[in-house]
Amino acid sequence: MSTHNPKRELFEQLARIGTALSSGTRLEFLELLAQGERSVDQLATMTGVSVANTSQHLQRLRLAGLVLGRKEGQYVFYRPAGDGVVGLLDALGKVGETHLAEVERIVRLYMTSKDELEAVPARELLDRVRRSLVTVLDVRPPEEFAAGHVPGAVNIPIHELEKRLSELPRRKEIVAYCRGPYCLMSYDAVQLLRKKGLKARRLEAGLPEWRHAGLPIER
Would you state the CATH architecture of domain 6-81? Predict the structure, then answer.
């Protein structure tokens, strides 16, 4: 009788993905790459990780089939291998919040405490955008906004927001978003806007999750 076990072999291959995700740094890289292509140097600068370590982390992600590379001149630019990678990150976060007490504690301490109001679901926001009922505020850096954003969104990076409040209409509710469900920039934006007397809420997740849901993107 053959001892070959194809199911076990399959699970061993899938476990390579789990191994690649077993690093907080690599998860952070995937969140940043979900905003748009990045080179090794760009990721290193954004995260404070050395160029050598950044390159090693990206190779682990590439070997697990989670990212793809594109060479341009002397640089290699990386991006997620597909929208399924964003879905995988989203599922990982949901499972963590539900079943890991430490994840739930961090979310409650650093995020829920900043904003106890219910966030706006993506499809509800799209409907309100189409009816011109809200102003959508993207607080990510300009290069991420240029790579793709929610239709009709206004881009004001979080560090410029207080000085540029006059650019936002005061009669409409403002819905802010950034890189994903654990990106604190949107929480900080909503706190500032409310402090200044504006009606503001957060998008339930971020731009990658919006794209993964099949909703329209502007570039």
Answer: Orthogonal Bundle (1.10)
Per annotation, catalytic residue among 40, 126, 178, 193: 178
Residues 203/176, Cβ–Cβ less than 8 Å: yes
Going from N- to C-terminal start, the domains of the chain cover 6-81, 115-212
Q: Taking every pair of C-alpha atoms in the chain, what is the biggest distance, in angstroms?
A: 76
Hunting for tokens 């789990």 — which residue is that? 18
Q: Name the residue with tokens 């207080």.
A: 162
| Strand 173-177 to 134-138 pairing | parallel
- Express each pLDDT in 120-150 by its tens digit: 999 999 999 999 999 999 999 999 999 999 9
The CATH code of domain 115-212 reads 3.40.250.10
* Sheet with strand 154-155: strands edge to edge: 154-155, 134-138, 173-177, 200-202
Q: pLDDT digits over 40-51, tens only?
A: 999 999 999 999
The pTM of the full predicted model, rounded to 2 decimals, is 0.90
| CA 146 from centroid of its chain's CA atoms | 15
What is the rounded CA–CA span in Å between residue 91 and residue 108? Answer: 18
The answer to whether residue 183 is catalytic is: no
